[in-house]
Amino acid sequence: MGFLLCFLLMVGVLNIGNPHEPGSEQQLRSAFELAALMGKQVLREIGWALGLYIPTLIALYAIVVGGQLVSSEERASQTRRTLALVAEVMAASLAPSLLLIVAACFSDPPVAGSMFVIVPAVGVMLFLSVQLGGFLIPEREQLLRAALTAQEWARSKLKSLRRRRSTRSIWVVVPANILASTALAQASLVLVGNVLPWWVPTTIYLATGLYIWVASVPWLYAVEVARDRLTRVGGWIGWHFPIVGASVIVLVSYVVVGHLTGNGLFVGWTIVLTWLIASSVWVADGDRVRGISDWSIGRATARAGAVNALKVLKSSSTEVRALSPTGGARRAGFLANLLEGVRRLRSPAA
Length: 350
Hints:
- By secondary structure, the chain is mostly helical.
- The N terminus is likely disordered.
């Protein structure tokens, strides 16, 4: 990935200020000539770069190996991954320079003699970066710990959501709340009065409901699927922003155009906002209110969180069985029994 990004950056640099039509033969020839000139310039500087990179990679490799002896396993693993990433970035950042040197060799064949010196040095650098890059792959124990942590979180989440989740999908509950609040707001216009065509407040109320759905409900879902306190607090903070924004819009609109539209529009608007906010935070439990609260956005969001936790539980349980030593032993025993059965079927005595 790092090599690809560096390559795309190099292509972009070669095409900056190119006067020819993109994709034309003249444009490609001009880009190649520029690459060859840049390659000759890189060739003058590549010596000190390799002289810096190779000792640095050797030092990183020594730190990785020595760190396993003087620090805890968790700290050593974190250090290995960090230094492995640094090594990969270093190797990738030098790749465009090598491509420019190759272009210079095609443009001026005698320059190719320098490759007899550059290729072995680059080979050493790539060997060290590949050795260090291997530490980027998480170890079996780390994967197992992560899977166990996810499994425990999913079980705890399902237990906490058991009594406050809805039995209905959020894709049904939210539209139902929008339509119900809009209908109630429209009914209030009959009592308060309305000087606007019926479709104007209806459109405003439905648009407000859609805005709350798109801008607010995802934050509630983020709270339900959060695995740490910081993410959960961030979800609650994020949920408040669109709510406060919609309330400010209603208030400012009333101050600016309320004398033209009358109070009916804003009474209904307030009803829609109040309904949706209350439905979002209402997760009441109990048999008496269960049928009504099942239609609350808060309980429907809790149901969506439970569905996510169930998926996490299934996937993490599968990973735990695959990564645990007992799981490996069971697979090995199954394969051994299978091979033994095939051998007996093929034996003449059978």
